[in-house]
TrEMBL record:
It comes from Cohnella boryungensis. This is Nuclease SbcCD subunit C. Gene3D superfamilies: P-loop containing nucleotide triphosphate hydrolases. Heterodimer of SbcC and SbcD. Keywords: Coiled coil. Belongs to the SMC family. SbcC subfamily. Residues 503-530, 575-609 form a coiled coil. The keyword Coiled coil applies. It comes from the Bacteria.
Amino acid sequence: MIPIRLIINNFRAIEHADIDLSAVSLAAIAGRNGAGKSSAFTLAPRFALFGDVISGVSLDALVRSGMSEMSVTFEFEHQGSVFRAIRTRSTKGKGKSTLEFQQRVSDRWESRSAEKITDTEAVIRSLLNLDDETFTASSMILQGQANAFTGATAGTRKEILSQILGLNIYPELQERARQRAGLLNIEIEKAKDKLLTLDERLAGRVVKEVELRSLESQHSDVLAAVVQAEHQVKTAESKLAVLEVKRTRIEQIDRDQAVISDEIATLWTEHLGHTGRLERSEKILVNETAILAKSTELEQINHRITSLESRKPELERLRCDLAGTEAELVQLGVDMGTLSSRISTLQQQLAVREALRQQTEAFETESQRLRTFEDKAERWNLLQGELSTLFSQRDREETRINLEKRSLSDKIAALEQQEVHIHDNGCLPTCKFQQAAAAAVAELPKLRRSLEELDWSLLNQLVQSIAEKQTEQLEIDYDFAAHRACKVRVDELREAAIKFAQLAGKDELLQQLERQHLEQQARKTASEQRQQDLQGQLTAVDAALAPLLNLTAQATELQRWARLKDEIGAARTDATNARERIAAIDRELASKQERRDGLEQERKDLFLDTLEYDVLQLDLGRFQVAQQQRRREQAALVEQIGGIKAVLTALDADQQERDRISSELEPKALRWVRYQTLIKAFGRDGIPALIIENAVPQLERIANEILGKMSKGKHYVRFETQRELKSRAGVSETLDIMVGDWTAERPYETFSGGEQLRIDYAIRFALAELLAQRAGSKVEWLTIDEGLGSQDAEHRALVLDSIKSVASRFKRVLVITHIEDAQAAFDQVIRFDNADGGVEVCVA
């Protein structure tokens, strides 16, 4: 895509602007702040193509203040043709939007719009093979976002790259395949269950017929048993009716006795309660003199305890002071130990300075060798992937030919047997068997020709291709063991190189640590003296408070005597009341016992008359159970007989159902196997892994090509997609950026601001180009919005040189800036000047 022209009316701050870009290649966009530079070159094209593209801002808010209608016309060249998108917005009434998409054919514009705006937008996305997010990432570096990728964490970089590559669709595809495979598996399992059920039914036909005859014989026997059981039940029920009245009276007597027993138990409980209160009251009254003496002694002890308790705050204060001093001494000991350890470590590090320098030089040499090995490994792996594909194709073709050959051979052998039987069976030529065999044998010549003419050409081509790829792989001369050894050597030397770089300034740090150690030694001596003073004061206070524990124990023992002092008056009243109530309860207990004895005698007389009741009840229950059992047996037999007849009637239909299910099962199983293959292909280790493995080297190659131009070959970048785990064996997924120069390779974060800017732009340009290539729609247009304002003069010059060095990769490069010395660095300048309430655009 190459922009040609922008016509803007009442869009944000711009009243009217007609911008012709057909003659622009590399230009600065100049103008005062708020003139509409960013609106014209970053928002207007996106609005024209994709509509609502500003998060949190409505379409009506894009209309210039005081106006009710706006429009943006964006004209561009794409794949050799010229197109334009015209989008309008009116705030009148409920608001209205329009979108017209046209293509220039000869000297006229022809519409390519659909009926609805959303459908027209789909036409634009289909033509460009881009959505708004991808279009913006491909053609624009928005303000403050040059390092949006490099400045992110490794995990965030991996997520951004996955989004750029469109890998978020594969989990959805895998889930769809898994769902369809699951539904198909359910259908297959249901079919299998149905077949098992039908097989069981069809296998039991003979058993069901024998069972039917047996059940009809049993039904006659059970019918006679039902009649006998009904007669026994009626006889037992008439005898039980006579005894039921007497049992009812016995039950009433049992209820009356239970009520009387409960009342007696309640009275005895009350009797025991009053007896206990009487005994306690008498004990208190007997010990009245001792209780009063103990209460007086408790008051004296409490007075002494109060006096001693007043000194406890002093004891707590001394303990807190002592604990703080001891904690301070412990902390000083820890700090001094830490300082000593750091001093010792620094002395050891400075002692091996020369050895670290030598290891650093070796690290640089081995790093150069490692890059050579990695180039060979990349070519080796690409060929290995092609070989895997060829091996798979060869195996499938070989399997297909063998299956076809076996099928033809089997048919030929069968027909040859029939041919032998034709001559040996002695049948007449008019025999139907003889005629069918002769027709089948006539097919033999055609089958033999098909066997001889099997097509082996594709298999031979695949075998030849495999041999060529293997020869090409051997010519690379890649030694995996040497590569691995070199990488191990680089990893071993990397830590020494880092340590050597960190030695600068450690001599001064050592002197500072030694001064701190002497100061802490003096503080420790003063704290030890204070600890001794506090320990002496604490010992004196502890001795004064020693009797407090014994006095507290005595007070606790005397407390129960003090509580009894308050109960002496109530004890006299309780003793009198308890004696009176005990006498009344004894009289009531005698009356209720007499009533219970009379009921017991009446119950014994009735019980002798109803001894036969339980036996009759058991007999009746047994007879009823037998009657119900016989009736259930009769009903079950009738139901079984009818069921068996229905089963025998349905067996023919079951056989037809089984044949149908069997014919449908095999195609479903084949489809299920195909879905399993798709689930594996869409998984994390399938197609997404192959895309990442191919995209990262491509991104690295494009970024290094651009960075080489920016830095004159000084810098290169390398992406690490895996990192060895520190806590356990294995690797974790990452996307670290390693940058190399003429001295060493180190993380992106360790480079200076100017160097980081070049790296940011190189990777950002590479991402834009990679995204366009992945989308299959190259965007030959780059807009950089205010990428210079936050830099000083030195870094600004570096950024300008970087932009110019990659300008040849794009048809249009536009740099929005308000800095005059930056504008002067461009041969072409597009100026935004306010005139008559609008914006006058001048291309110089």
